[in-house]
Structure prediction request, 310 residues.
Amino acid sequence: MKKTVLITGGAGFIGSHLCELFIGKSCKVICVDNLITGKLSNISHLLKNKNFQFMKHNISEHINIKGPVDYILHFASPASPIDYLKFPIQTLKVGSLGTHNALGVAKAKRAKFLLASTSEVYGDPLVNPQSESYWGHVNCIGPRGVYDEAKRFAEAITMAYHRYHKINTKIVRIFNTYGEKMREEDGRAIPNFISQALNDKPITVYGRGDQTRSFCYVSDLIDGIYRLLMSAENYPMNIGNPNEMTILELAKEIIRLTDSSSRIIHKGLPTDDPKVRRPNISKAKKILKWQPKVDLEEGLISTINYFKSA
Ligand code: UDP
Prediction:
């Protein structure tokens, strides 16, 4: 019997890679997206496939799904800081009401459920690297709080459905990820820097650029998510690349790889911008036998080529 996979946010950056993965595994895929930040062009090549169904729907509203569902991957949410600042209420709603609705479907169908959580649950962390046992340092009333707290609530309700309703749930804490299908106007550091560099426009480094991030290529992330879904683990799992660098180093690397004449300019640092971020991936290594394979240069070259062609 073919497995049926429901993917919320399936037209988004990561969601659309997951749709491709499960279509490639001959599953039936139901992709739900209200397209506020997702793009139909990410999945347009799948629309003709008889195993693929697209539903334009806001998962924060009740949803009716006909027939059996085996896996639910809840990826719907604005995920770029500029998006969750533009859609603060929708971000809070999809993390809370949207997660509740998606869990409700999991309960009705007795489906396995995987929540897309985030390294933002660690906030502006006081320990580096961050392991799953760290409780985080989040400003709940700051502008980023709408995303961080929605995801923290999403984790809490997911664990409650696991404990109370005995749903087989998984929580992936996704660290900064990049690659094909990111939008040019996404607003995050890598798409901004690549599109600025390709157009010989100034590279906008926020603050001094000494804040750090650790960037994971999308194919590595997708592999980690699939392994987590198939594992017996129910507690949160970091998936990310521990290769930590400053944002200034990232900007210089993108200028080098694009052979751009762009110069670096500095803009104001957004409120509560985390100063450091690096995943401890010991748990994923041990339990999932997973670790990233694609190094930054290789991943950036693929992403730059995608931006050139898009
Ligand atoms: N950033 C930057 N210039 C940009 C976009 C982002 O300097 O044009 C910085 C941002 O302030 C943060 C880091 O790059 O310190 C990563 O930002 P991003 O939006 O990619 O994701 P975050 O990790 O903050 O969620």
Notes: The mean pLDDT is 98. The first helix runs from residue 13 to 24. The CA atoms of residues 198 and 258 lie 7 Å apart.
